[in-house]
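During the no-cost extension, the postdoctoral fellow (Dr. R.K.) reprocessed legacy sequence entries with the updated structure-token encoder. One reprocessed record is reproduced below for audit purposes.
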Amino acid sequence: MAKITEKTRNEVREIVFAFFAEECEAELSKITDNTNIIRDLDGDSLMFLELIEIFKKKYNLDIELKTIGKYAVKHPVDTIGQLIEMQMLIIEHENRLLELDK
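Re-encoded structure tokens follow.
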């Protein structure tokens, strides 16, 4: 479990934007919080899994994919901004993510 700081928020944002720009061959300057991952970037769920692995290593996270999957079913992600917010919750709460719904 990590405390979310402004530095963490900025790092996550930069990584997510750069990741989708590279993977989807999109101009970084055209990606915004409102960019739809599937419709606008032709992204997919495997990209989300790749990002999770990147952040697990970067922040030494202890979280199971099934925990993220259960949370994502109730809180689907469509946009870059939503994905960033979910990633912040994953970093902050790790395997206690599902407790947020209680």
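The first helix runs from residue 6 to 23. The chain has one domain: 6-101. The remaining legacy entries will be reprocessed before the final report is submitted.
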